[in-house]
Amino acid sequence: MPKKIKMIPVDHIALKDDNMTLNLDLSRFERQFQRAQYDLDSTIMTDMEAFMPKQDGNFVNVTKAMSAAIAGSGRVVAAAPPFGRFLYYGKTMVDIETGSPFARPAAKKVLVSQFGGKTNAKENLDLSRGINPRAQAEWFEAAKKYYGKVWIRKAKKTAGGGQSG
Predict the structure, then answer these.
(1) CB-side exposure of 119: number of CA atoms within 13 Å?
(2) For residues 29 and 46, which has the higher predicted lDDT (pLDDT)?
(3) Residue 44 — very low, low, confident or very high, per pLDDT cuts 50/70/90?
(4) According to the model, what pLDDT value does residue 131 have?
(5) Which of 63, 69, 55 lies closest to 82 in space, CA to CA?
(6) 19, 32, 97, 135: least CB-packed within 10 angstroms?
(7) Is the pLDDT of residue 11 over 70?
(8) Exposure of 87 in the CB half-sphere (CA atoms within 13 A)
(9) 128-151 burial string, b = 16+ CB within 10 Å, else e?
(10) What does the pLDDT average to over 29-42?
């Protein structure tokens, strides 16, 4: 039984006993883990696209570009600003003073439920399903429900953890 376990950087482990020294270089695994994270982040963005509302493609393209810029970090941009938040949650936002969904330049917008005045705007957005028939609010959750097990299986395989899911 080793008397002492010494951790050097994350990519290296050294075990020392009275008459034996074992050095493990784990840098190969670090590269595999980084690749698995990059692939997972990229796959999530690709799979979310089928559930995102799309009219002219600008919103989806900006979201994909922002997500690609941070791929490998363990984060994915699900909805690019400025209108991504209310699109993602499927809620209408209105000008805080006029109650109109068509806000004045630089006007603050709030959810219909937070607007204190009278408005004809509906609480929930009617998301376009012309291009993406599966478009819906909270598209990350929808993609995770549909593809989550595949994401885990692929990440494990890339990281060297086998194919069991």
Answers:
(1) 24
(2) 46
(3) very high
(4) 86
(5) 63
(6) 19
(7) no
(8) 20
(9) eeeebeebebebbebbbeebeeeb
(10) 91
- Half-sphere exposure (Cβ direction) of 82: Cα atoms closer than 13 Å: 7
Could you give the CA distance from residue 145 to residue 46 in angstroms, rounded to a whole number? 15
Length of the chain, please? 165
> CB within 8 A of 5, min separation 6: which ones?
13, 15
- The rounded distance, in Å, linking the Cα atoms of 76 and 37 is 11
CB 73 within 8 A of CB 42: no
- The answer to whether the predicted template modeling score (pTM) of the entire model surpasses 0.85 is no
Burial environment of residue 82 by CB neighbours within 10 A (0 to 12, 13 to 18, 19 or more):
exposed
- For residues 41 and 60, give the distance between their C-alpha atoms in angstroms, rounded to a whole number: 16
